[in-house]
Model the fold of this input.
Amino acid sequence: MQVGYSPEDEDFRSEMRAWFEEHYPRFRQDWPYPFDLNDLRLRRAWEDHVSRSGWAGLDWPVPYGGKDWPITRLAIFHEEQARIGAPLGVNIIGHGILAPTLIHFASEQQKRRYLPGILSNREIWCQGYSEPSAGSDLASLTTRADNTGDHYLLNGRKIWTSFAHIADYCFVLARTDPAAARHRGISFLLVDMKSSGVRVEPIRQITGEADFNELVFENVRVPLDARLGEENGGWRLAMSAANFERGTYFIPRQVRFARELDSLRELAAGISDKGHPALANPHLRRSLARLSVDSHLLKLKSWRALTQALRGGPPGPEGAATKLQWSESHQRLLNTAIDVLGERALPGSREGVGPDASPWVRDYLWSRAETILAGTSEVQRNIIAEQVLGMPKN
Ligand SMILES: Cc1cc2nc3c(=O)[nH]c(=O)nc-3n(C[C@H](O)[C@H](O)[C@H](O)COP(=O)(O)OP(=O)(O)OC[C@H]3O[C@@H](n4cnc5c(N)ncnc54)[C@H](O)[C@@H]3O)c2cc1C
Done:
């Protein structure tokens, strides 16, 4: 495993850090609305700025507008972005999941058609996999795409589709051969969200935000050349895309995690519990020690994912361990923050007294989703057992 970065990579880090330090404070200062890192307008605007400045597609091949840099530079870019506290983008599905899938599997014509929109951030993507009766068991999906000879006619219902309400395109898994074995009759379609018959119904989350949706397709015409890969060959592409999602996609999370752990220590240092500093509490100290170990493990796992990526080829199932570790550690971190805040975390309680609890409470509530999205913790454990450790299916 490659541990750490080369001197050349560290030079690149200095360049990146200087760029973020120049641009991000200015962006913050010029933002015309209340500064909320979860505001999708803000996330989009920052992502647009980054793309316009030429920092998108760093690891893409040059003919598609990329720089063909090693994946370590992409990781450093994300680490520095996380370090300065800039928001995640809204086209993370386009950049992190679809683009690598297109680069590996699309026809030349499809690469030329779809990659520039992602690179410039002009076209936002969402992922239409889950259905009301097909989540972990995705192969039981029932959305149908009937090949009429001229186009596909798409009918069905997707759910939990993040960013569908702002997306221009959606990559959709649909059944194209209902008679074939479950995994064999599925195709991977690139659907224009402006097509007639596409309906988006937002779903409000426990945080009050509504950044995922129910998505209905009623006789939506999808051109035949908007199918990625072979007809009925979509399952293999979906599994590769999932490995991209779990592989390098979670690398920058370790930097955000380390940053949040620092903030949690600061929070605990500034709060007193029945007249004693919260940090003197042995239970809290044990939790913080455990979180430090989690933070270190996440860093090691991200180095392992990087090493894997540097060897070339699409990432394998090992990314399941990174996703599992990150999502469960992050919940532990936010549970600890709520313990530290105590009654200050309750709505309306001791308003104006002590630290501002609301960002912690929002993140605590949101983190409930993290052990579900991109495959639940149980599913990640199954992947590790069966595909990494080679254990039997039962
Ligand atoms: C915030 C958020 C964003 C999301 N964004 C998207 C998106 O953009 N696009 C998209 O397509 N989907 C998205 N999803 C959906 C997500 O992928 C599914 O919720 C997830 O795959 C689980 O499916 P499910 O909700 O149907 O639960 P189920 O599959 O019904 O699972 C219910 C419970 O049973 C357990 N379980 C199921 N099968 C097994 C098994 N074989 N072994 C052990 N335990 C098992 C699960 O772990 C879980 O605890 C998102 C979800 C969330 C929370």
Notes: Residues 126-130, 135-136, 160-162, 212, 369, 372-373, 375-376, 378-379, 382 surround flavin-adenine dinucleotide (CB under 6 Å). The first strand starts at residue 125 and ends at 128. The chain has a mean pLDDT of 92.
